[in-house]
Design a protein that fits this description.
- The protein is an alpha+beta fold and 253 residues long.
- It has 2 domains: 108 residues, Immunoglobulin-like (Sandwich), CATH 2.60.40; 83 residues, Immunoglobulins (Immunoglobulin-like).
- Helices cover 19% and strands 50% of the residues.
- The chain has 2 helices and 15 strands.
- The strands form 4 sheets. A 5-stranded mixed β-sheet has the order 3-9-8-5-6, with no helix packed on it.
- It starts with a helix and ends in a 6-residue tail after the last helix.
């Protein structure tokens, strides 16, 4: 029963890991909206955008990054962008730390309207996770270059991400994608690669499937085997002890 529960728990964790990805998060406070990824890979670079409605004469934006263990993260010091009037979103470039942790990004917008100041605070939470590198090779056998090739990666049938690449004529290209997987439970995972261009070839035609392994996927069976072996040893010793007592001669006075 315990083995079954352990297996179900591992399966649940695997499903959770596969469904988790770097979904974009959008937080809003009044006329201010902040958008960016909710999970990123360690040491990766990502962008958060701040949009402000056209109601102020001008406004300023500050960003403060905080969290536990922000080794190699940037920017560490507060970032200020002042005297803004543009209607386009304002981008902030962030580098994730080289360790798994949680980052908190605090954005404060100070809007100026007819001599009065208005403040809006928006906080976004970013989970920094381990990544798994997925690799493939694409080939362009034609005599002309191709652009905007969408190389899609799926793990166990679920979409995990894609890369947009260009490839020159009659050439091959290595494509690498950093899947923000977190720490994968032990197991074997089937990775499928697809492209949106039928002229581009993969290792196995228009699609390519390979396997990656995390840890020892058979560790549960190893433990079960050890337990079963010890159980057999105990049974054998019990039977041997029983027959030894049964054959022992009974002394009479």
């Amino acid at each position: 029963m315990k083995a079954i529960l352990a297996f179900l728990l591992i399966a649940l964790v695997v499903v959770s890991a596969l469904t988790a990805s770097s979904y974009a998060a959008t937080n809003t406070n009044g006329p201010v909206s902040v958008s960016g990824p909710s999970s990123v890979a360690v040491s990766s670079k990502f962008v958060y955008s701040v949009s402000v409605q056209d109601i102020f004469n001008n406004y300023s934006i500050s960003m403060v990054v905080s969290g536990y263990n922000l080794t190699d993260a940037s920017p560490i010091d507060p970032t200020y962008i002042t005297d803004l009037r543009s209607l386009t979103p304002t981008d902030f470039n962030v580098t994730a730390p080289n360790v798994t942790t949680t980052m908190f990004l605090l954005f404060q917008v100070k809007g100026n309207l007819d001599g009065a100041s208005y403040y809006y605070n928006v906080t976004s939470v970013v989970q920094v996770k381990q990544f798994t590198t997925l690799k493939t090779v694409i080939k362009n056998p034609s005599k002309f270059s191709m652009s905007d090739i969408n190389v899609t990666f799926k793990v166990n049938g679920k979409y995990v991400g894609s890369e947009i690449v260009n490839i020159s004529e009659n050439s091959t290209k290595n494509v690498t994608y950093q899947w923000v997987s977190g720490v994968l439970p032990s197991g074997v995972y089937a990775v499928t690669v697809l492209t949106n261009n039928s002229l581009v070839q993969l290792q196995n035609g228009n699609s390519y499937t390979f396997q990656i392994q995390s840890g020892n996927p058979f560790v549960v069976y190893i433990y079960l085997g050890i337990v079963a072996f010890l159980g057999i040893v105990v049974v054998v010793l019990f039977i041997a002890s029983y027959y030894a007592r049964k054959r022992r001669p009974k002394w009479k006075k």
